[in-house]
Amino acid sequence: MVLENGKMREIHFKALGTYISIRLFEEELYGRQVEMEKLLKNFYFQKEGIFSRFDKKSELSRLNSSLLKFNPASYDIIETARHSLKYYEKSRGYFDPRIIEKLESVGYETSFDKIISEEAVKLQSDKSEEIKSSLRDDLAIRDLKICFGRRMDFSGLAKGYITDKAAEMLAEKGFRNFLVDSGGDMRVLGRDQSGENWKISLEGVSEGSLLFELSDGFRGIATSGISRRKWQIGLRRFHHLINPKKLDEFNFDLKSVTVVAKSAEEADVWAKVLFLMGKKEGLEFSEEKNIRSLFLDYRGNAYVSSAIKNNLKL
Question: Which residue in 132, 164, 214, 254 has a CA-CA distance of 20 to 30 Å to 42?
Fold first, then answer.
């Protein structure tokens, strides 16, 4: 089903520490907007109750307080743990959920909207240990139980994972044309309100000059950058993208990395990994792995991999 010039409805709310926007079409809603809004909000809030590291009652917090033993875990935790192990290997260790201690030591121990001034955040005594062991030494899965050797933070892929699950739920409900936007992690299906492939603009770039077209099975897009989540304590600058190979390195050369992939989760992970690698290594890795990526620096320069040229509309 393709909607020609369909009238679009948007559902907005805040969850996962960001703004959620879901675009659906009247022809497919059939008067179910109130029902779908409630369903989607409940879905996101339930996932937040699983993955939030700021909520002491979340499932992740519970697991982080019970280390070195196998504990029962939800399907979502088991799946993201499995995916984390996969991405850890594929990314040569740049993707690592064990950076939580470093995040806390540089002040990111509360939700980011509370980090609003130098007075609101202070450097903690850095108890974060250098990550020398393999992730498999600290993260084990046995049937429906999981064991953390060190505390974990799955936020490096959770938002993309949740976005994909929301899209799957909408498809199961009969929707064939939609866009799910979880604070920049996006997943689309079908066509936009003009009956064309979905086109996404890049934040910080004039919408008329560069658009990403999502098509041919590549329905996920995510941008990882430091324009919003950066702060300063005294003379030191920090951001939320922790390099597990160099815990004390906070690179400010790149503004963002955008990746187009088959899923929002995949795009989310590779955008973060490539940012941490830096422009040179990240572009080489993109070419080697055929990743559709675009790097943007603070001088306004854009650098693209060969593969993403199929998705760029200039």
Answer: 214
